[in-house]
Amino acid sequence: MSRRHLHYRRPLLATLAAFAVLAGTAAAAPAATPRAAPVAATPLGALDDTYYQDALGKSGTALKTALHTIISSQTKISYSQVWDALKNTDEDPSNPSNVILLYSGRSEPKSDNGGSVGQWNREHVWAKSHGDFGTATGPGTDIHHLRPEDVTVNSIRGNKDFDNGGSAVSGAPGSYTDSNSFEPRDAVKGDVARMILYMAVRYEGDDAFPDLEPNDIVSNGSAPYIGRLSVLKAWSQEDPPDSFEKRRNDVIFDKYQHNRNPFVDHPEWVESIW
Ligand SMILES: [Ca+2]
Ligand SMILES: [Ca+2]
Questions:
Q1: Rounded to the nearest whole angstrom, what is the distance from the C-alpha of residue 77 to the centroid of ligand 2?
Q2: Less Cβ around it within 10 Å: N or C end of the chain?
């Protein structure tokens, strides 16, 4: 029995599933440790046997297609409901009155949301102009890629693609930007990559919204693409999912959208698809 199996009460089915997974090839990632406002983390083995059962054993396009079907089954929330959801998903584990701002890394009172300088607002990590999906219920309200951010820093990131390099960003230590790209601080580089790649799999053009895809350029403008894929893949490797990111995925799954970011659960699927 690996150590992670000692941390959680498991339903019988999940316990049985764990043996199947241990006998198989699934990577046994360490389970997330619930922090503030804990949710019962779902053991990866149980997820593999249930949520991901139609994806296991697949790779490349077949894996992407299977994951698209799985994660497209979801509850959708409105743009106004996003405020309250982010106050839970991005809660500061050291201070339940605050949220952590994605690029700034600052702990900011939950109540200080709004549009004024010094407040936090709703950052679309997949910039909403890339595909021009706006804030109608859909990709523009999908909290898998919506994060609290300082109003001014959010504006500096704007709709830039992601890439390494540039000048230091005031108010976001460790972040850099130039005329056409933005580099987030190291601690969230992988988070950003996995959010972008979630969006690419979730939105395939079979609903009222565009087919979002990563590519390897910057200056994508309003095209439904975000770059640079080679950099995002490196970021995902350099910054694997931590307990904050895993808890966030669990909270979205348990309380809001009831779908998951597969790349938080199985980061190795990034390389399998791209
Ligand atoms: Ca991270
Ligand atoms: Ca897509």
A1: 20
A2: N
Closest CA to 175 of 194, 202, 156, 199: 156
CA angle centred on 54, ends 64 and 19, rounded to 5°:
125
Give the number of the ligand closest to the Cα of residue 210: 2
Ligand nearest to C-alpha 239: 1
DSSP structural state of residue 211:
B
Ligand 2 ion: Cβ-proximal residues, 5 Å cutoff: 200, 204, 211-213
Has residue 48 got a pLDDT over 80? yes
Q: pLDDT at residue 34 above 90?
A: no
Task: Give how many domains the chain has, as a whole number.
Answer: 1
pLDDT at residue 33, rounded to an integer:
41
Ligand number nearest CA of 196 is 2
From ligand 2's centre to the CA of 108, what distance in Å?
33
For residue 21, being part of any structural domain is answered with no
Domain residue limits at 170: 76-273
Sequence letter at residue 203: Y
Give a yes or no: residue 39 inside a domain.
no
